[in-house]
Amino acid sequence: MRRDNFRITAPVWTPAHVATTLLLILLLTGSPVTADTILFNDLTENVSITTTSTRVSDLSCGTNSLFEFCLLTLNPPSPTAILLTPPATIGIAEAGSTNGSDEIAHGQIIGTQIAVFNFFSDLDPGAPIITCSPPFTNCLVETGGVQTAFQLFWSDGTVDTIQFQSDVPGPTSGLLLIMGFVALGVLKYATF
């Protein structure tokens, strides 16, 4: 037989072949992991939580005679995911102070992969929740904006973000009144 009688042709890929192949690749690689963001809001006299997570359960917020609080549990992102982030407590201090007005504690229910969060805020006025004294107690300084306290790392690649937003105390009314009188005195002195 002669060699020119054998012809090798490349397969023809139609749009249907391409679509089927892409669909199989997506199905075999698994669905992407969705990370969640949980925001503790401490902007008013009542602490609250904002999240779109479907994994949050046992949510409870309230106020007692000592502090405002929010408690919640966060279920794992998948049945086989293992929580890799160790338990920790973060104090949140007002600028220029070692007194922590807020605290976020993260732990885990023993024997499970369920994460637990406790957020505490002092009553206004109230005793500090925590004293910030590194290296024993880590504290963040509240800015009034949204700040990240923790990131939870899971064995399936999910990274959840735990944030807080606290009100920043402004100058008191008395201080503003004194500043106003000083300004008037300066203006009166400058005009004569």
- SSE string, helices as H and strands as E: HEEEEEEEEEEEH
* Percent in strands: 35-45%
Q: So how many helices? A: 2
Work out the count of structural domains. 1
Can you give a write-up of this model?
- The chain has 192 residues and is α+β, with helices and mostly antiparallel strands.
- It has one domain (35-174).
- The chain is 18% helix and 36% strand.
- It has two helices and eleven strands, in the order H-E-E-E-E-E-E-E-E-E-E-E-H.
- The strands form two sheets. Strands 3, 4, 5, 6, 7, 8 and 9 form a seven-stranded mixed sheet that branches. Strands 2-1-11-10 form a four-stranded mixed sheet, with no helix packed on it.
- A hairpin with a 5-residue loop joins strand 10 and strand 11 (159-166).
Element layout with pairings:
Layout: H1 15-29, E1 37-42, E2 48-51, E3 56-63, E4 67-74, E5 88-93, E6 99-108, E7 115-122, E8 130-131, E9 139-141, E10 147-153, E11 159-166, H2 173-191
Parallel strand pairs: 1-11, 5-9
Antiparallel strand pairs: 1-2, 3-4, 4-7, 5-6, 6-7, 6-8, 10-11
Please give a handful of descriptors for the protein shown.
192 residues; alpha+beta; 7-stranded mixed sheet; 4-stranded mixed sheet; 18% helix
How do you describe this structure in short?
It is built from two helices and eleven strands; from the N terminus they run αβββββββββββα. The protein has 192 residues and is α+β, with helices and mostly antiparallel strands.
